[in-house]
Design a protein that fits this description.
The complex is a heterodimer of chains A (146) and B (300). With 146 residues, chain A is mostly helical. In chain A, 67% of the residues lie in helices and 0% in strands. Chain A has helices at residues 26-55, 63-69, 79-87, 91-119, 123-145. The termini of chain A are far apart. With 300 residues, chain B is mainly alpha-helical. The chains are: A mainly alpha (146), B mainly alpha (300).
Chain lengths: 146, 300
């Protein structure tokens, strides 16, 4: 694979990105993280949707309720609001908590990749992955400041 | 439906809408279209937002701001759900993905920040233009069949160890491929990331050609890798949308659940569709969407 590489390395982890062992490969680990995160997120969203309709039976019949619900700027856009809403067993807060879990899944995936590349002693990809992680964290900080 | 104000419609239609327009029916409808969007999106290597945003805005009359906010989260869901399977099957190239995510996340940040500046009509026009471009690029590729020379050596791609192989179910054998022009890919991915951040789509429509046409990855690997990258790209702009209040749980919740279910079903079909089929389907969908969104952008 890296025949034309200027400095061939004997163990060359760079050239063999997919280990064939049936054990816990990085691919399998990442696959499990993605699956688990999505399932947790969806469970929270589903519970939240259930709670919403349980608390508001009029949502099955009233059209004014829809207009109220879809009116602009009834915002739920602060982490503390979401957290307090979850403690108060509010349906929409559960949904939002689920959505926030979903948003954090890719960030965790990159963090996990960083660990994998460090174990493989792949310096170039440790640097690349760290930069991607930094950009993700910056985006969440920028969002909080705005 | 309720978000469009001052919309003059005839009384009969208005009455019919009022009967149907309960929160429960709205949620159910959003969920059904989300399942369809997720299924198609996954088959095409897109985030699903490409199909979802036009339906939310054109059919359900949701404000494009909230459509984008709901879509960006569902895009993460689609990517993560489908990618879980692609990664396990070794179809997604994780090294290529991580390398290109440098550019897509930087682009997504740029896009999400720009979205506050660009107006609604501007977003529609950009959306239409992006789709039309994507469709034409794929159409050109459809004619020249895959007798492509992959012998070219690329020093940077060698150094980064980007080359790999995948198991092709259609032919039943392992197919090795070599990657070229990673820097061109990086540049294109910055653009794709910006578009993703602006429009709340995964912009797989831009990512797939960038890998397929520019970097020489096989179409199935491009689709799978694109799906894998999309989540990280979307997460980079989702935080900004959340803080801005553009993610409305009432819409984003059912969208997220529906799209994930659809994408899960789609990832089961993925390797079984032959590439020609995939491309033809891709082109038809994109052209239709492009036309509708451009029209909306022009007429306001």
């Amino acid at each position: 694979m890296s025949l034309s590489s200027p400095n061939p390395r004997p163990s060359a982890p760079v050239a063999a990105p997919i280990p064939q062992a049936p054990a816990l490969t990085p691919e399998l680990l990442i696959s499990m993280l993605l699956r688990g995160g999505v399932m947790l997120s969806l469970s929270l969203v589903a519970v939240g949707m259930g709670l919403t309709f349980f608390h508001h039976p009029d949502y099955f019949s009233s059209s004014t309720a829809l207009e109220r619900l879809t009116a602009p700027d009834h915002g739920l856009h602060r982490l503390t609001d979401v957290f307090q809403g979850v403690l108060a067993v509010r349906g929409q807060s559960f949904v939002m908590a689920g959505l926030l879990v979903m948003m954090s899944v890719p960030v965790l995936r990159v963090a996990l990749s960083l660990g994998v590349f460090r174990l493989q002693k792949d310096r170039v990809f440790v640097a690349i992955t760290a930069a991607v992680l930094a950009l993700l964290l910056v985006s969440f900080l920028v969002g909080g400041v705005e | 439906m309720a978000r469009q104000r001052g919309c003059a419609r005839d009384a009969g239609e208005d009455d019919a809408r009022r009967v149907l327009a309960t929160p429960f029916n709205f949620v159910a409808l959003v969920m059904v279209v989300s399942v369809v969007a997720g299924l198609l999106g996954s088959l095409l290597g897109l985030g699903g937002g490409l199909i979802l945003i036009p339906i939310l805005t054109l059919v359900l009359k949701v404000d494009i701001r909230y459509a984008v906010g709901a879509s960006i989260v569902s895009v993460i869901a689609t990517s993560s759900g489908a990618a879980a399977a692609y990664v396990r099957d070794g179809l997604a190239n994780m090294r290529v993905a991580m390398f290109l995510e440098l550019a897509t996340t930087a682009g997504a940040l740029t896009g999400a920040l720009l979205a506050g500046v660009v107006g609604g009509r501007g977003l529609y026009l950009l959306f239409g233009a992006v789709m039309a471009y994507s469709a034409l690029a794929m159409l050109r590729k459809l004619r020249e069949q895959p007798t492509r020379a992959t012998e070219a050596n690329d020093a940077l791609a060698d150094r980064l160890g980007l080359h790999s192989s995948y198991f092709d179910e259609a032919s039943g054998r392992e197919v090795a491929y070599r990657v070229r022009r990673p820097l061109v890919g990086l540049g294109l991915m910055y653009v794709a990331g910006t578009v993703s951040g602006l429009l709340g789509i995964g912009s797989g429509a831009l990512k797939v050609p960038a890998m397929d046409l520019a970097m020489g990855l096989p179409i199935k690997v491009s689709s799978a890798t694109s799906n894998f990258m999309i989540g990280v790209t979307a997460a980079a702009s989702a935080g900004i949308y959340f803080a801005r209040g553009d993610i409305d749980p009432f819409i984003a919740g059912p969208v997220c659940v529906g799209v994930t279910l659809g994408a899960f079903a789609g990832s089961r079909f993925m390797t079984k569709l032959s590439s020609g089929w995939l491309r033809a389907l891709f082109v038809v969908v994109l052209l239709w969407v492009a036309f509708e969104m451009l029209r909306k952008g022009v007429h306001g």
